[in-house]
Records
---
Amino acid sequence: MNRTHRQISLSAVAVAVCLASACTTYVQAPPQRVLVQAPAPAVVVPAGTVSVVIDPPIDQPPPIVIAYAPPPMLVEVPPPMPYFGAVWVGGYWTWQGDWVWAHARWLPPPFPGYGWVQPYYENRGGSVVFITGHWAAPGVLFVPPAIGLSIAMANVRVGITLGAAPIGPYGVFVPAPPGSRLGLIVPAPIGTPPAVVTSAPPIVNVGMVVRRNTTNITNVTNINNVTNVNNVTIVAPPGSTASGQAYSGTVPAQAHLAAALPPVVRAAAPAPRSMVAQPAYVHGADGSRPAAAAAQAPPTPAPGTAAAPAANPPTPRPAMAGVSTVPSSMSQPLATPATAAPVAGATAAVSRPAQVAPPPAAAPMTPPTPTTARALAMPQAATAQAPAPATAAASMPARNAQAAAAQAARAAQRAQRAQEPAAANAQREAAKAAPHQTAVKATHEREKEGERRQREPER
């Protein structure tokens, strides 16, 4: 009996010891996964970015040459379409003496059937050939500037610092995605809306390309109208993006649909200072200087004195391949010194040469020495050089008059086009009425013939 109690006690102790030591089971909790979100790329918006409301031209304006590339794109999300037929206009970089942001908005076409033509950017010889966005009449196709065409150099407002030259291959392009390195460009087909790169990642090197999906083209005869293309493809190698990863994405080819996509870098466009629409840039209509001379302007010589040579003359920009640039100062023929208006306050210095002491009456006439000839020629040189400021000032009204005449001609063309539908309707109505008039005339002739035959038996 005691042995049995002893065994039960030992079994109870063994169970207790087993439970207290070796028989205990430990369960380890699973590791927790902590998600760390990478910081968003820094927004790179040029200091002093200006947003303006532009009144788009009715016809294709002449191209201009700009010495530096447009900044990266900005983000401007379109609101819902307010009415049927509205066109999303703007949302790109345009020229107003500097690259300014054209505020995007919904606009109706100026005339029935008119279509919107996207802005044109081309890297030609290290400079940008630019044509702003504009309206086009039905059936009028966009004409790219021909190679070798003489294109005027755009004027730069006083106090503007020139930016970086375009970095990328020659040809048509759109500005880089938001947050990209300044100066980079993205090659794209003609007519591509710049807003297609708004949702693309920022780039720090060349390599990103916009390709048109030819399988979605419905009208291959009009390659300049991107509304015939449903979408485009944007590709970039790993070395060109800021993240170091390759990119390939499909984006709608319509500007309002592409601008509505979520961007990688939210570089929001600033609100315009005024909602009053400004006219598009017209070369020579303002008093700004050509881009080639905006970096360093020579000092204006004093009235009646010859201009002194500069100690460090600026290095001229190399000529661009296939482009003949015409600065604004050469857009009008300059007047010769004989016909130029004299400078106010310097009439005496220009009209009267330096007084030279006459030779004695008794002294024989001797031929002048080279030194004397140079001294006598100096007043003439000063007289020829002094009217230069007046000549430049006189050419400014001529350029303004030329710009006003061009605007008046475009207004006359718009009025003529507005009258064309009425004239066409009148011609159609006349064509419809012609058969009726012919039938009426034939009826009258038959009636007269019947009356004539009735009179013949009486005779």
---
Amino acid sequence: MSLRSEMILDAKLAMRDGLTRTNPAAEIDARGYVADWHSNLLPGIDPKLIEADFRAGKGSELDSKFQASHSSAALAVNVFGRFRDGQEPFPVPSLGDLTLQKFERTFSTGLAGRMASSGQDVDDDYAWDCGAQDG
């Protein structure tokens, strides 16, 4: 096994173990997937706030990829989800309080066919609303 493959495996196992500690009731299969995407959320994350975002995207995240304990989308939601729609302030000293507006956004790639659009879990130019005050 290459060093890269070993590091990826270690990261996946660490994320699976973290999910097991955070949500002991989650049933995780041998591939590291939960049966229901809700099981991959930390306590306090409102699934209603994120479901519409991901259902509007083209990646079908919630139907497969989000169920992986090593999902980058689940990681983004679990880190930033409490800041969605101002549930909690996200203070940034130079900008003020930021509010996460949306998790998933589809972008045009300029290509035709299946590659015509791509999704991104958190878009820093679009998703954040800055509440900075002048002065």
---
Amino acid sequence: MRKSRHDIYQYQQAYNAQAVVDAESSQLIVVADVVRTPADANQLEPAVRRVPQPIGAVEVVLADCAYVNADAFDRLQEHKVEVYVPVSGEDQNVRKYDYRPPSKRRHKKVTDPRLVAMREKLPRPEGKRIYSKHDSTVELGWHIGSPAGGYGIAKTTPRTR
């Protein structure tokens, strides 16, 4: 149950669906789970661990900015898993041509050296090439399968009924 943002006396039944997609070849969902936790930051590592061994070892993880967790990145990298996650929404939504006026919001400065390294890794040619698979595989699957849309490799979309 989750408290409604709009009505302080209303509670909604909400779930957080997690999915791991094989972005390299088959584009099939290899792991699916539903959790009660509203935040995604602690869901990336457990989702990767649930990939069945017959499928093979996970080598690269692509996720959206909701999964930023420097400690989880370290633990995954200790197991030889390369992680590509935008540190903030601005890093994730880079467009070739953007005619919108600049945002007036102040963005939180990233000071954790692990997150600074991640922020620097994604804009490089190799990072762009690898992360480009995120939108064409994971995002597409969520948008087709979900009327609410979706956001990432193990990204969740809270649903209410």
